[in-house]
Amino acid sequence: MSRNRFNFLHNSELELRRDAYGFALRPQHIQGYREYAGIYKEEEEERTQKWKNFLENQELAQLRSTKEKYKETLQANSTEFEEETVRDKNSEGNKAEASELKRTTFSEKGSEGNEAEASELKDETVSVSGSQVDEAQDTRWKADLSERSGRSNVPEGTRETVPERGREGEKAEVTELKEETLSERGKKGDDSSRKSDSDGSKELSPQKEQLSEETKTEKVQPWAQIRPSLGTIEHMMNFRVKKRKVMKGEQITKSGDHLPSIDEARSSGGESDEDIKEKVCVTVTSYGSVNGLDDKGSQEDEVSPEPYFPWKEELESLVHGGVPKDLRGELWQAFVGVKARRTERYYQDLLAQEINADESKEHDNSFGVPRKWKKQIEKDIPRTFPAHPALNEDGRDSLRRLLLAYALHNPSVGYCQAMNFFAGLLLLLMPEENAFWTFVGIIDDYFDGYYTEEMIEAQVDQLVFEELIRERFPKLVHHLDYLGVQVTWISGPWFLSIFVNILPWESVLRVWDVLLYEGNRVMLFRTALALMELYGPALVTTKDAGDAITLLQSLAGSTFDSSQLVFTACMGYLTVTEARLQELREKHRPAVLLVVEERSKGGRVWKDPNGLATKLYSFKHDPELLIEENKGTEGSDDALADGDLSYKEPAANLDNMLSGLSVNSELEGRDLQEQVVWLKVELCSLLEEKRSAVLRAEELETALMEMVKQDNRRQLSARIEQLEQEVAELQQSLADKREQESAMIQVLMKVEQEQRITEDARRNAEQDARAQRYAVNVLEEKYEKAMASVAQMEKRAVMAESMLEATLQYESGQAKAVSSPRAVHNQSSVDSPKRRIGLFGLAWRDRNKGKPSNLEGSSDRKSTN
Amino acid sequence: MGCSGSVPARSSGQSGGLNNLENAGSSDAKNLRVKLVLLGDSGVGKSCIVLRFVRGQFDPTSKVTVGASFLSQTIALQDSTTVKFEIWDTAGQERYAALAPLYYRGAAVAVVVYDITSPDSFNKAQYWVKELQKHGSPDIVMALVGNKADLHEKREVPAQDGIEYAEKNGMFFIETSAKTADNINQLFEEIAKRLPRPSPSS
Ligand SMILES: Nc1nc2c(ncn2[C@@H]2O[C@H](COP(=O)(O)OP(=O)(O)O)[C@@H](O)[C@H]2O)c(=O)[nH]1
Ligand SMILES: [Mg+2]
């Protein structure tokens, strides 16, 4: 497992919840991370090899082209470090030869790359031999590095980190530092050898080491030179820094805040400490900035055509493939051009100033960092990569110092949330002062105007991104519009955090690799567009705003395939260039400025038709309206002019002032002229040598560009086809679904109708049944009545029968008793009805004879009871 | 004040109208969807409140919020309606206020949070209330929340101050603790009860 290489992660429980960089994994991402850990490891091995080859080839080329020139220096160097390196050679044995070669290379580069030397030279007391010793040691260290065979050589590692860390100038100091660090690191043994361990693990642990070891003693990590094998890359990037500074120095930028200028920086070169201190105060009050810049650099820019670097394309593709872990800290510094930015002792002076201010309790005066930033920094330090193993108490002290120093350095930014994460990240990769200068480069330069009080450029970029995304993914945006989701809700935090805490760490670092290499914010846009491309198809399936946002957040958070992301970003959006972005920024900036101005006046921002919100809204509803609005804004430029002036004027003044300063400093720096001229001559000859290479390379470049273009075109059209196909499929399935739906509806309707009919029928039947039941009841009643009357009739019939019988018996009795039956018969026939009645009455009485007695008996019983 | 605020707010409400429409449109009388935004000074515990409400956890080492972050949570009320909260948790630092309108525009609910141990944060809360009255939707439901109620021994803002201010501004007031989970669910339930219901349709 790749993580096993990090000694602070020996705890396997920790390992489960943290990635290879020591960052906590969200529970839902642990599985995803595990799946990719193996891939990361393979990729890392591959890129380590590639970079190794690249750097070695570069050195060889350098060696060949410049060997002759510096033979003398070389010899001097060699003798010096021969002594120094004996031990190494002995212990390293088989590496001796390689070391020899590397050493040679270095000393050439040292004088050719000359940045290093220039900074040395500038230092008043530095002796030539001193710097050469440094170089020699650097070389030795590097030699060991590129060998990377024996990993168990703890003592070497320990020693080898020394010159890097102790490069403060004077030889004595170096030795002192060396001893100190030696003893410190000696204790730590294995950990500290990591610097020389190219096997991918060195950054974090030594960093942690350094943080804990050195902050404890109230000592800030000394500036550390990056390994010489990266010198040529650094050299190239330094050109960019200088060029940009020159440009900025001449240009009046609209945003008006913070204009690092070469002139300013130049003035700092030859100054004494006190001057610098004064200057810092000036900086604080004058809203400017002091950007470190070696004298050498500032002189060089006068010869400023950027030399052609034939290996630039190769380097670029290597960067796209990712930077090896163990080179990352130093390569980032090289990319940012820290060397060209740095001013010796500047960082220490800022810290001293802050401490003094703190002691004198004058927080809110112009000395020291304003209280509101301090408070915010204090709040945020424990909330920066909480529980990261390297951000222990000492790590947090470093973080605090760096942020406070920056707030002093550039008061137009001060402290802004998000910066804590960047500083934290850099501190994990490099020594404190190096981290400071890298940080300065990123915030002052790459993200100029982003984290300032008004965050103008951050807002402008969101408008630009909104336009780009509308242009690239109209359907996705349409869907999001439909759901009521604004892309900028999501992309805003992406941009502001430069994807820290948004993407998995491997991806964050890969994006930063490219971003820092390119020297601008293009990669920010490309990555965001790539994420939209990757996750857009999933997004269009969402049904409400919440689901869409949640989905996009969680998909972004699980973008473990960092190579796919970087590739998609870099190859898919080649037309998103810095030039294009600048154009779009110019277009959108006025609207933002207007809103900011309104806001600061406390006006009703949202009412304004040119307001940001309205602008975003109109984007959504009518792109043409936007164009009109822009015209409108252009028209109202006059109205804006006042506001603009307020930005421009101080900037112009500042600039004039600074250029004035620079003239002075040039005079002051005259004692350095000789060195400079010498270096310039060297540079010219180098340039000449390179010219032929340039021609050859240009041909190659055009050929390559052509190939790349075709390749991209093919890829793009393939993707478009694919997308179109997908869309067609989706549409087809949608149509199918619709058909099915309507069929279903028809069926449903029929069923419903039938149901209704049967329902009616049932109701009718029920009614009938009820009626019949009623009839039955009636009949039953009738039947019962009839039965009752039948029974009565029967009784009567029985009675009649018995009466008849009785009558018959009586008549037969009479007939026996009367002599003349005829007369009696007649008489009786007349009387008979009466008798019958009488008889009948008697009989009736007889029949009921028992009943009254019964009744009486019962009543008796009742009474007795 | 309601009047002066409503004019610009309405125009902004229109920009966010799509959201409102969408929010109201797809939610029926029984299933509401609400956009809610949390505002307040940095460090008062906004992120912790959301995490407590959504995930039921309290992480004492929460991360600084950069820009804003989103979470959603659905609750069921006693009358068997459900309310889906779409929660935007914003960054607290002053300068991020420039981006806040992006998030509170079109929000049906604003929860303004302060820390009962910090009078500064209470002042900041009042700033946000004013801002919302000026630029928020006119019919926005606002809640004032005094968080970190568990730190009563360090209290510097009396509950009465919160109650009075809330009353004056027609807000719902509650004191919560993301740490102990006190009143967190109640906060959201009370908000849910106060939401204007869409007129029931067939
Ligand atoms: N004691 C206590 N601490 C809390 C509470 N809520 C948040 N915190 C702490 O306050 C700090 C800031 O919280 P966070 O949510 O990041 O603040 P936000 O900037 O408003 O998002 C964190 O360190 C939390 O541990 C609470 O209810 N009680
Ligand atoms: Mg937060």
From TrEMBL, chain A:
Protein name: Rab-GAP TBC domain-containing protein
Highest taxon, organism lineage: Eukaryota
Native source species: Citrus sinensis (Sweet orange)
From TrEMBL, chain B:
Record-linked SMART domains: RAB, RAN, RAS, RHO
Keyword Nucleotide-binding: yes
UniProt key word Nucleotide-binding: yes
Superkingdom to which the source organism belongs: Eukaryota
Any Gene Ontology CC annotation: endocytic vesicle
Span list, region Disordered: 1-22
InterPro entries documented for this protein: P-loop_NTPase, Small_GTP-bd, Small_GTPase
Record Pfam families: Ras
Biological processes annotated in GO: intracellular protein transport
GO MF annotation terms: GTP binding; GTPase activity
Keywords assigned: Nucleotide-binding
Biased composition (Polar residues): 9-22
Protein's recorded name: Uncharacterized protein
Organism expressing this protein natively: Citrus sinensis
Lineage: Eukaryota, Viridiplantae, Streptophyta, Embryophyta, Tracheophyta
